[in-house]
Specification:
Elements: E1 2-7, H1 11-26, E2 30-31, E3 40-45, H2 50-69, E4 73-78, H3 79-84, H4 86-91, E5 97-99, H5 107-115, E6 120-122, H6 133-144, E7 156-160, E8 162-163, H7 174-178, E9 182-183, H8 186-198, E10 203-207, E11 215-218, E12 221-224, H9 225-233, E13 240-244, H10 253-261, E14 268-270, H11 278-283, H12 290-303, E15 308-315, H13 322-335, E16 339-344, H14 352-356, H15 363-386, E17 392-400, H16 402-409, E18 421-427, E19 432-437, E20 445-453, E21 457-462
Parallel strand pairs: 1-2, 1-3, 3-4, 4-5, 5-6, 7-10, 10-13, 14-15, 15-16, 19-21
Antiparallel strand pairs: 8-9, 11-12, 17-18, 17-20, 18-19, 20-21
Helix pairs in contact: 13-15
The protein binds S-adenosyl-L-homocysteine (SAH), iron/sulfur cluster (SF4) and FE3-S4 cluster.
The site of FE3-S4 cluster has 13 residues, from α1 and α7.
Length: 465
Amino acid sequence: MKIYIETLGCQMNRLDSELLVGLVTAAGHEIVSHRRGADAVLYNTCSVRRHAEDKVYSRLGVDAKRKAVRPLLVGVLGCMAQREGKDLARRYPAVDLLCGPGQLHELPALLEKARTGRRAVALDPDRKTPPDARDLEAMESLDLSRDPARTPSRSGAFVRVMRGCDRFCTYCIVPFVRGPEHSRPPEHIEREVKKLLDAGRSEITLLGQTVNRYRHETGGKTTRFADLLARLSLLPGLRRLRFVTSHPVDFGRDLLEAMRDLPNVCPYIHAPAQSGSDAVLKRMNRGYTRGQYDDLLASAREIVPDATLVGDFITGFPGETDADHAASVDLIGQAGYKNAFIFKYSPRPGTPAEKRFEDDVPEALKRRRNMELLAAQKTAGRAHHQQYVGRVLEVLITGKSAREQKKDRRKESPDPQTGLVQLQGRSRGDHIVLMEGPDSLIDTYAQARITAASDLSLFGEIGRE
Ligand code: SAH
Ligand code: SF4
Ligand code: F3S
């Protein structure tokens, strides 16, 4: 079959989709880059906010019309499939296949079943704690069977170190859809990283919902997250090692010291605050106070002074007062984040916040607070980026800039005088760096002298490596 996969949601979903491409091609299917002409469309979905789900519902509506005129297999994979289960298929009869994020290894068999006209469903019936050994082995098979040549980038790759989440922040659907927290065996992770390095990848990003809670015990030996970093950092060819997303509670000094002492661990900390107010943090069940979060920022500055900080915030959480909101604005002003992801609270069915608290901040106020946080971050982001002007940074050039890609789509040729294009890359601190250069530099490292800054990116000139 010709299969089109559309991926929504976080990096974990992007990784899952990449692994699925390998899995279904090994089963004899072909992946196509456009839904037109596809025999099957698969949505790898996200449930974190209503907006992400609405996108899929509208696609399903269109697919139902397409199905009326030609055969088309429609599948919903991932977090939404798990959250809604068979209700989704009941409401959208166009859906032929449902597969939860923990059952993705079953996809080839599900496709075969759906092809014969039967509805194919694989979901986790409940949140199994702990997952049994057979399930874990099956889930591991997806990561272990990975073909390293299939990474979307030739320079970097994601590697999962944990599944699920046990933190149960009150607003969050992830623990319900991704299941219980489980750390992968370090030897499996190491094998996968080695495979990717052998295939020429040099930047590895470790993924987990609370990646720094990683902890694996076997035969009386415990591997903490800092130990895992130390072990991986020894692998030849690993130039950059990153990890996302961290939980502030688990960001201990050992981890900051590992970041300082291991030369290939990048100085990049994505540790979402969600709010600057103690009262809101408590209702969110985040497990820390504003003071503790401030202490983390202070230790990070002390131990890894060049670390880039990135935050997430939710505005309009139930009961959020003007004073609570002002505390978030204040935190953004204090933290010096490179960037912050700012979201309006979206009640998720079945989560503790949705059950316990009324969504009482009116939409217009949520929007206004959202804009105020964005404006505060814009100022903070500009100040953050400005400090790099005049410095030389190592940049991994990842591709053409958005501006250049737009030109390509309009079929405009590169600057006829120089043949140069606008390239985009990332510093070790994950800053976006834009610079002119030949496209032959894509997927290589360069030294760039920073000449200007905006609130979201740096502009530089390429020197020699
Ligand atoms: N595991 C990561 C990311 C979770 S989802 C972590 O713990 O940081 C990514 C972000 O979405 C969260 O950090 C939070 O800011 C936001 N988010 C999660 N649930 C939300 C909800 N119900 N409404 C609005 N934003 C939400
Ligand atoms: Fe959601 Fe909290 Fe887990 Fe992050 S730590 S995935 S926000 S429950
Ligand atoms: Fe969304 Fe699932 Fe990721 S809910 S944020 S795709 S874990």
